[in-house]
Design a protein that fits this description.
5-stranded mixed sheet, 2 domains, alpha+beta, Nucleotidyltransferase, domain 5, 7-stranded mixed sheet, 512 residues
């Protein structure tokens, strides 16, 4: 029986293809990079043809490396950067460059949609999510208002991974997790919200069928087979948005298991067994990659980004030493931070350097060192940044818990660059009061999740839980009672500061 699976992840900097076997071992991997255009400040876009060329090349490279007989490959699953607007005309050709997830041009359109829906509360009733500038819905309205000729040509809007699947022989369609990120999708019903689309003033026909992630949404065409080396007729499953499917691939599908990504931003996610309300739209509550499952996500904007700012602005001596001694500056900083006590003697850092999304949707919020005294040195500042980021992530986690009193947090699966730090892993365990583990293979990201979800749809595994199984742990940290006691007091102080400082943040914004 065929037991190999391909996973294709259409990322922001490149497309990654992996081949896994029935034991979930990565047999071969290849990544092909491409550029991103920034035609104006705050604008980001890409040519979908670059994704297709990269997908073809990476698939070819993986098949060549693995040398697996074509008949042994069961199918292809997909992951991709979320929220990108790919506009297609009636011939299936791209109308304009794709507007990406991190593009900020659509604030006026998001505000307009929200206002017409009766405010954030009214929109959340229709979709269970706010309309954020990253979301696809605002991008479509921007095209209608600013490029009416392109809007008139457009007959379908899909996401980046959908375009690559379509070019391989798939349908012009999307999946429920990526559809959730349009901001015009009824997440509870797992269907488009006709009312929200009408409020936005958009044509309903633009919005394509939203498959469950594991469902087959096409088969490799003869043309694509000749270009890639894949077998004609090979099933293509719908796949999912990367923020959801990469956590599914890490085993974060069961309620109670938190996934925390300590990257430039900090992402906290949990699989939800049943639909949950999203009061005030503080979270991003999306459909997950299996019917009957949802996904709660909260993002704090400057997690690792805060620590990088600290490194760049306040750690010149440490950076010089690292360069001279051939060391990683972050290893030096982590060692230094261990010299400061838990709680930093009352020094608290608020990591709002880029404003904030969750738990406080406030673009005016800014970073703060609070409680600074003569007794504090560089090590205290260092550790305070790490602690402040972790406190913020805990607040996001508590927003997820608050969606249902039955949620009992059990453990944290930590990933991202910050997870390399033994101190940060232990700090997370102490602040969250939960076991913290890192797992093997988490670096494969969305491509791994896409392959696993495809395996569920094609019968290799019965469910997503079976596909992910028990993750293979690389490290495990348990909370220490003495540190927990200190951190509970520090967390209470941290949690009191945003409300006290919010008026000052607004006043400061007027001076910028």
């Amino acid at each position: 029986m065929a037991s190999y699976l391909l996973g294709v992840d259409v990322g922001t900097t490149g497309t990654k293809t992996i081949l896994i076997d029935g034991t979930k071992r990565v047999v071969a991997s290849s990544t092909v990079e491409y550029p991103m255009e920034t035609p104006q400040p705050g604008w980001t876009q890409q040519d979908p043809e670059d994704w297709w060329q990269a997908a073809m090349q990476s698939i070819q490279a993986v098949l060549q490396k693995a040398a697996v007989p074509q008949g042994e490959i069961l199918g292809v699953g997909f992951s991709g950067q979320m929220h990108g607007m790919v506009a297609l005309d009636r011939d299936g050709l791209v109308v304009r460059p794709a507007i990406l997830w991190n593009d900020q041009r659509t604030q006026a359109q998001c505000d307009e949609i929200t206002q017409k829906a009766g405010g954030a509360e009214g929109l959340v009733k229709l979709t269970n999510n706010r309309m954020l500038t990253g979301y696809t819905g605002g991008k479509i309205l921007w095209m209608k208002q600013n490029e009416p000729e392109n809007y008139a040509k457009t007959v379908a809007v899909i996401c980046p991974k959908d375009y690559v699947r379509y070019r391989l022989g798939g349908e012009i369609a999307t999946d429920v997790s990526d559809a959730s990120g349009f901001g015009l999708f009824n997440v509870q019903r797992r269907a488009w919200s006709d009312e929200a689309i009408e409020i936005a003033g958009l044509r309903r026909s633009l919005f394509q069928k939203a498959y469950e992630s594991y469902e087959v949404a096409g088969r490799v065409s003869a043309e694509a087979a000749a270009l890639t080396g894949l077998l004609e007729g090979l099933p293509l499953t719908a796949g999912g948005g990367d923020a959801v499917i990469q956590t599914s691939g890490s085993g974060i599908v069961r309620q109670g298991v938190l996934g925390v990504v300590l990257g430039t931003s900090g992402v906290v996610a949990m699989g939800l067994e049943g639909f949950k309300p999203n009061p005030n739209g503080e979270l991003q509550l999306f459909c997950s990659n299996e019917s009957g499952l949802w996904h709660g996500i909260g993002v704090t904007l400057a997690a690792g980004g805060s620590y990088r700012w600290f490194r760049d602005q306040l750690c010149g001596a440490q950076a010089k030493k690292a360069e001279e001694e051939g060391l990683d500056v972050y290893d030096l900083l982590s060692a230094e931070a261990e010299g400061a006590p838990a709680g930093c003697g009352g020094l608290v850092f608020l990591p709002y350097l880029s404003g904030e999304r969750c738990p406080y949707p406030d673009p005016d919020a800014r970073g703060v060192f609070f409680g600074l005294g003569l007794e504090h040195g560089h090590a205290h500042l260092n550790r305070a940044v790490m602690e402040g980021v972790t406190f913020s992530l805990r607040q996001v986690a508590e927003r997820i818990y608050s969606t249902d009193a039955s949620i009992k947090p059990e453990m944290v699966i930590l990933s991202g660059g910050g997870a390399r730090s033994a101190l940060w892993r232990q700090m997370t365990a102490d602040i969250f009061g939960l076991p913290v583990v890192t797992i093997e293979g988490s670096g494969e990201g969305g491509a791994f999740g896409g392959a696993l979800v495809a395996g569920v749809g094609l019968g290799l595994w019965k469910s997503l839980a079976e596909a992910t199984g028990a993750p293979r742990e690389a490290t495990r940290n348990l909370p220490r009672p003495e540190a927990q006691a200190v951190y509970e007091r520090a967390y209470a102080l941290y949690s009191s500061l945003y409300g006290a400082l919010a008026p000052a943040f607004s006043a400061a914004a007027a001076l910028r």
